[in-house]
Design goal:
mainly alpha, 2 strands, Recoverin, domain 1, 113 residues
């Protein structure tokens, strides 16, 4: 995976140290992402915080940090949800085993075993 600075330089076709809309569009396409115009518009707006019509490296890296933080938060949420699901399933299984053991004991008592 490229570091953000290298990715920014790759996207910056004209070497202006600012990404224009077309450069972002071409860069995203070069990375194999097919985005609609509406999606590209939204992506560009997310990065272009000062509404200058270009994306500086600072804007680029700040938005990447936000995205990475959101991914980390989603991952943590998924882990917690998986743990809760596992514990719930384990408790349900334990409950079933308790009922099964109680039924066997009742049957054993009934049969005088």
């Amino acid at each position: 995976m490229n570091c953000p600075r290298r990715t920014f330089r790759i996207y910056d076709d004209n070497g202006s140290r600012m990404l224009e809309y077309e450069e972002l569009k071409n860069g995203v396409k070069d990375y194999g992402l097919n985005m609609s115009k509406a999606e590209l518009d939204e992506l560009f707006a997310c990065f272009d915080k000062d509404n200058s019509g270009t994306i500086s490296f600072d804007e680029f890296i700040l938005e990447l940090r936000v995205c990475l933080n959101n991914i980390i938060l989603a991952y943590r949420f998924f882990i917690v949800l998986a743990i809760i699901t596992f514990v719930t399933a384990a408790l349900a299984l334990l409950s079933l085993l308790t009922v099964a053991v109680a039924s066997m004991l009742a049957l054993a008592n009934k049969c005088n075993i």
